[in-house]
Amino acid sequence: MQDKIIAGKMKAIRMHSRGGPENLVYEDANIPKISKGEVLIRVHAASITPTELTWNSSFTDRNKKERFPVIPSFEVSGTVSGLSSEVKHLKLGDEVYGLLDFWRNGAAAEYVETDATEITLKPSTLDHISAASLPLSGLTAWQALFDHGHLKPGQTVLIHGAGGGVGSLAVQIARWKGAEVIGTCSKNKEVIVRQLGANQVIDYSNARFEDVANGVDLVLDTVGGEVLNRSYQTVRRGGTVVSIADDIDEELARKYGAEGISFLVEPNRRELREIALLADSGKIKPVIQDTFPLRDAKQAFISGITNHNTGKTVLRVID
Ligand SMILES: NC(=O)c1ccc[n+]([C@@H]2O[C@H](COP(=O)([O-])OP(=O)(O)OC[C@H]3O[C@@H](n4cnc5c(N)ncnc54)[C@H](OP(=O)(O)O)[C@@H]3O)[C@@H](O)[C@H]2O)c1
To answer: Does the reported pTM lie above 0.85?
Structure first.
């Protein structure tokens, strides 16, 4: 089944029980075996989402059965080092990137196995650290703006958390599409959000966005809570509020004549290729807050949770 068998031990970051970063341990684990339709990736870099240790999926399978020990980090860039014979679109040695299944082990390890349909060639102009910063944020931004928000050239989108992991890519992708972008962020991110292409930036500590933005076609919310609930009044009637961070209050959405949508990002190889092409043509640039060696993943998570990050935090697996 496997063209090249790799067996033995690898270094990995694992958790043996639920909890925060304090439960992450750097230790030996078995190199995973691949099944039908899967590839084994030699991980070069893996990105974290600071909140992922609060997701139920990080600790269970799709049937909600706990699956300890677990490996975090769902964005990977690396080299194909094993593949099952059914996989036709990749070969050994290909440099690939992708978003992994949230209900399986992640990429904070020297090797990870994954369904080949989730993986594609990485942007050829980017190194592995930059490539690993793109899949989750890029796909989430893409699906929020286009699959759910149906953003068109010339429309206006209000993006909350515009300097964060998802927001920083959403600003660039929306501008590439020809949309007008209003971004909200803290004062210290104003400059970068403008550099990313936002036409207007609102420092949320200084102004209420609903006093500045109104009649927008789409809101992309990456913050949730009261930020989401105050957003319905900023869209035009018939406009859309998409949240990746919280549930929609249907009553509130109806009151303002808006459509409210919350969704969970899905792996999508075709969209990943589009994102790779945008990166290779310089239309979008990865935004990276910090990098940490694999063994310091605990520190990476603590930093991600406690700091107001600009962009992604990436683990360097091969230094
Ligand atoms: N549904 C999905 O499929 C999906 C996919 C990916 C992520 N997520 C979730 O989406 C959320 C964002 O993810 P991320 O990776 O982008 O996180 P992140 O990198 O931490 O970005 C969040 C950003 O929001 C900003 N922020 C905080 N309070 C704000 C406010 N009141 N107004 C405007 N901006 C504010 C933060 O920094 P400043 O305050 O300094 O500006 C930060 O830049 C997380 O909860 C994550 O779990 C969901």
So the answer is: yes
Report the C-alpha gap between 159 and 219 in whole angstroms.
6
Domain boundaries, the chain: 9-134+286-316, 136-262
CA angle 203, 142, 97 (to 5 degrees): 110
Name the residue with the closest Cα to ligand 1, atom 4: 244
The answer to whether the 9-134+286-316 and 136-262 domains have the same CATH topology is no
Render pLDDT for 16-34 as a digit per residue (tens, 0 to 9).
Answer: 999 999 999 999 999 999 9
CA of 88 to the centre of ligand 1 (A): 37
Q: Which two tokens stand for residue 11?
A: 């270094």
Superfamily name with CATH number, domain 9-134+286-316: Medium-chain alcohol dehydrogenases, catalytic domain (3.90.180.10)
pLDDT tens-digit series, residues 143-177: 999 999 999 999 999 999 999 889 999 999 999 99
Task: Check: CB of residue 242 under 8 Å from CB of residue 220.
Answer: yes
Q: Whose CA is nearest to atom 35 of ligand 1?
A: 161
Report whether residue 158 contacts ligand 1, using a CB cutoff of 6 Å.
no
- Ligand 1 pocket test, pick from 168, 190, 222, 301 with the greatest ligand atom count within 8 Å of Cβ, gives 222
303-319 residue pLDDT tens: 988 767 788 999 999 98
Report the distance separating Cα 72 and Cα 109, nearest Å.
9
CATH superfamily of 136-262: NAD(P)-binding Rossmann-like Domain (3.40.50.720)
